[in-house]
Amino acid sequence: MSQVAQDIRYTKSHEWARLLPDGTVEIGISDHAQGALGDLVFVETPDVGRAVATGEACAVVESVKAASDVYSPISGTVVAVNAELATTPELINQDCYGRGWMMRVQPKSASEVEAMLDAAAYAAVLAAEGG
Amino acid sequence: MPRITPLHGLHVALGARMVDFGGWDMPVHYGSQIEEHHAVRRNAGVFDVSHMCVIDLHGAGARAFLERLIANDVGKLRVAGKALYSCMLNEAGGVLDDLIVYFMHEQWFRVVVNAGTRDQDLAWMRAQAAGFGVTITERADLAMIAVQGPQARAIVADLLLPSAQRAACLAQEAFFGRECPMPDGSVWFVARTGYTGEDGFEIVLPAAAAEPAWRALNAAGVASCGLGARDTLRLEAGMNLYGNDMDEQHHPLECGLAWTVAFAPPDREFIGRPALESIRARGDSKRFVGLLLEDRGVLRGHQRVLVPAMGDAPAGEGETTSGTFSPTLERSIAFARVPRNVGERVQVDIRGKLLAARVVKLPFVRHGRILISTSQE
User: Fold this and answer.
1) CATH number listed for the domain at residues B286-377
2) What is the ipTM of this complex?
3) Are B39 and B138 in contact (CB under 8 A)?
4) Distance between CA atoms of B89 and B69, rounded to whole angstroms?
5) Looking at domain A9-110, does it have CATH number 3.40.50.300?
6) pLDDT, tens digit, for every residue of A24-57?
7) For A3-99, where are the E strands, in sequence order?
8) Which of residues 25-54 of A touch B (CB under 8 A)?
9) How far is A127 from chain B (nearest CA, A)?
10) Which chain A residues are within 8 Å of B353, Cβ to Cβ?
């Protein structure tokens, strides 16, 4: 059974977003997503300064098996990426909601995060997917 | 409904992540594909390969039938137990499947074909068999496991084989198999073959015997391994996968499989021979090579390969056929079909970025050792 962290928001495509105290939004992929992908071996993060739109493919996670796009859950500007993933992509497997974060985005509007799925709604999405 | 093997319940009980593979519900890994890969390179792992199809050919015409059916020469099989790897071609020289033939005795050859092609293969073989005096029997009653790794043979012999059979099974040369009578009256077939680049056995056994054998191997430290590790191991070992690296649209001479096509003796009229002879005479077949990615990223099948101009030869394009991250090399590797004038340097188009790759001789890894230079030049 996949772990769903309670304090953050989710997308149906298995990204998560966390509003940080400085107003930026930290983004990663869910435990369900990392489990489905398997051992991650390469992560391509966007350039800092890039403008991203909601639903835009902006990063790629590659496991031994396959490459998958990661979609930005919100609109805004990339202000930081997790440089540790370049050498240790497995951080996403080990701690997807913590040290395995992928990027931080300065949102156009904080309300976009509020509009995402909460933990209960995301758990229902997973249940409907059978996982 | 997907098809399942006799070990399906065990895979689920062991917590495997199951995926569809050619219509079969199969384990892709049991936790970590990379750890399973290393277990086979360093110690031993066990794979369920029961989805592959064992076909027994019986009859006085079995040898003549195989001389016609497959591109390699079954005439090389004169000693009981010897195995032969071959392609089965259509009239145009396209690859219908790759397979292994074991020579049991003059009235019995055992053929193992791929899971995804088993139904087409059986239909093709039956259609070709008319007049040869051969019966074709699909052995759906059997399971097949592959135990692979430097410790695999010793563990199997100690754990699973009756003492009277151990020495003979262990003494088999590579690419031989033999029947092994068991105390319960059943007969296992134990072959020193595999698809990982490591030593080991492939064992064909009664369906009901597979789960106890698997559990005993696990208890002795043999790792359960899924199709994920099987794919990275075979890629490192330079072994082709049907459907990726060769198919009906490609002939063996452009799939790195020329070594499996026996043009001698010249009077053996195997299916596809006339087409292959014209292709060979033209001499323009693409080359099938290994690629080592020098930049960061992961090579996959069907990525565009750019070959730079060399001297008089113009720039050209090829394509990767399989690619992955190699756990042993900790770099990405691939097979590619490229123009004949390819040099040592190419570029691969990964999501619109051109990344540098080096052309290398296959295999990448054999018997736990890296065979290519991985240093950046």
Assistant:
1) 2.40.30.110
2) 0.85
3) no
4) 8
5) no
6) 999 999 999 999 999 999 999 999 999 999 999 9
7) 9-10, 15-19, 25-29, 40-44, 51-52, 57-63, 67-71, 76-81
8) 35-36, 38-39, 41-42, 44
9) 17
10) none
